[in-house]
Design a protein that fits this description.
Low-confidence stretches: none
Radius of gyration: 21 Å
Order of helices and strands: HHHHHHHHHHHHHHHHHH
Helix content: over 70%
Number of strands: 0
Largest sheet: none
Number of domains: 1
Strand content: under 5%
Number of helices: 18
Length: about 450
């Protein structure tokens, strides 16, 4: 059993929790969770979602950490070594490749969308610092940005440079230093925005909007939605947590840090809702499905009218950019770690090469928004098709195989040693039963729901 990774180690349990939380908290987490909570029964949805975190999210989160920490290498090589030790087929390295490729695809379009947040953040910063004119027609401004390949490519490139700049420096000098600054910044921004939301006079209404339980909304489709959110919100199925787990010290209790990550991720989503929805209610805005159309077209209308709206808008888009940045570095780390192990090139050379390929892949999403707008795949634009393949098919399959590997391929001795050697028998057997039986069934249900079969 290796006790350290060749790539470096987190200096403490807190650093791992911050890094894994940063991986989990992303653009969809800041906006989508509050929106689907309000649309699916408020407090009733939150309770169902928390139950899904327990039976779907945590078992796979623990599994990824266990696999990563036991292997102490990139996800691909960790799976290869652990499969060999267990006398299992080396075909299990396919799980590592599946996660790495899925993460590559996700990062390719995620970087494009994150570039939008940088562009808007820069616009608001100009308004705040040098008195640039406000965005008078946010809808037209957003359309003009999407119609401009040059602008999209520029901000897509800026975001990838920010991402590779962290990963190229390694675990201690890059990832850990970044999350030690970015995550506290994210938390402070959230609290500032929450404080403003509490001052609008609509905070109590927002609490009711998000948390008043509407049990009539509980249905099969709502449960599938909650399971899907629980799975995706923790950044599972892309081997990111597996890679981060490889750098976790051996004396750290996996269940404790796993629960801390899940709690922090959920708390960020809920606080974001309480920060944003008072503004939504104050100005009678229509969420429009909770997507980019709302963030980049409707919310700026409120920022133009509300007191200190320019400062709020600057902080809001900075928050989105930070959330995207911490997620993106976790997606670039697994392939970088693998090729560092597999070649004689330096980490900087590998990180730049992988980032360049990702940036080039992202150009498909850029052009799909303008010059190739008429081109569709299965009724979806290029970005939508890539997102569907990665998020709706590859990630659930990756999570399913992770649960099977941890529950059925790894020996009980190994999993118990990695989870907590002093864990009570009932707790370990409960995790094992969830990982072997319940979680795979739930993921299959999520997968069938995502591809439209149920």
């Amino acid at each position: 059993m290796k006790t350290t990774s060749v790539h470096g180690m987190w200096s403490s349990r807190l650093m791992f929790v911050l890094a894994a939380t940063g991986s989990a908290v992303g653009l969809g987490n800041i906006w989508r969770f509050p929106y689907i909570t309000s649309e699916n029964g408020g407090g009733a949805f939150v309770l169902v979602y928390l139950g899904c975190i327990a039976v779907v999210g945590l078992p796979i989160l623990f599994s990824e950490i266990v696999i990563g920490r036991r292997g102490r290498m990139s996800p691909i090589n960790s799976l290869k070594e652990l499969a060999d030790d267990a006398g299992a087929s080396r075909a299990w390295i396919g799980l590592g490749w599946l996660g790495v490729i899925a993460g590559f695809l996700v990062l390719s379009f995620y970087s494009v969308v994150a570039g939008w947040t940088l562009a808007y953040g820069f616009d608001y910063l100009q308004q705040l610092v040098v008195g640039a004119p406000p965005i008078s027609d946010p809808g037209q401004t957003f359309e003009n940005m999407l119609a401009s390949p040059g602008k999209l490519i520029f901000w897509h490139a800026v975001f990838m440079v920010l991402t590779v700049g962290v990963v190229a420096l390694g675990v201690e000098e890059g990832l850990e230093r970044a999350v030690s600054v970015l995550m506290p910044t994210l938390f402070v921004l959230l609290l500032v925005l929450l404080g403003y939301g509490m001052s609008t006079g609509h905070f109590q209404e927002a609490l009711g909007f998000l948390f008043s339980p509407d049990w009539s909304r509980v249905s099969g489709s709502m449960v599938v939605t909650a399971m899907g959110q629980a799975f995706f919100t923790l950044s599972l199925g892309m081997c990111a947590i597996m890679a981060y787990g490889a750098y976790l010290p051996s004396d750290v209790n996996v269940p404790r840090v796993g629960v801390a990550v899940a709690f922090s991720d959920t708390a960020v989503a809920l606080v974001a809702g309480l920060a944003i929805f008072p503004i939504v209610l104050s100005f009678g805005l229509d969420p429009e499905g909770g997507g980019a159309g709302f963030i980049f077209t409707a919310l700026p209308l409120a920022f133009n009218e509300m007191p200190f709206g320019i400062a709020y808008g600057t902080a809001f888009f900075l928050l989105l950019s930070v959330a995207a940045w911490t997620s993106s570095i976790s997606l670039l780390e697994p392939p970088t770690a693998y090729f560092v192990e597999a070649t004689n090139f330096s980490r900087k050379q590998i990180a730049i090469s992988v980032a360049t390929l990702t940036w080039l892949m992202g150009l498909l999403s850029v052009f799909g928004l303008n010059i190739w707008r008429e081109f569709t795949l299965g009724g979806k634009d290029i970005m939508g098709a890539i997102e569907f393949l990665a998020s709706n098919i590859m990630l659930p399959i990756g999570g399913l195989l992770t649960a099977v590997f941890a529950g059925w391929v790894l020996s009980n001795r190994i999993t118990r040693e990695e989870l907590d050697a002093k864990m009570p028998a009932w707790a370990f057997n409960g995790w094992l039963w969830l990982t072997r039986v319940v979680t795979p069934i739930m993921i299959v249900i999520v997968l069938l729901g995502l591809i439209g079969i149920i």
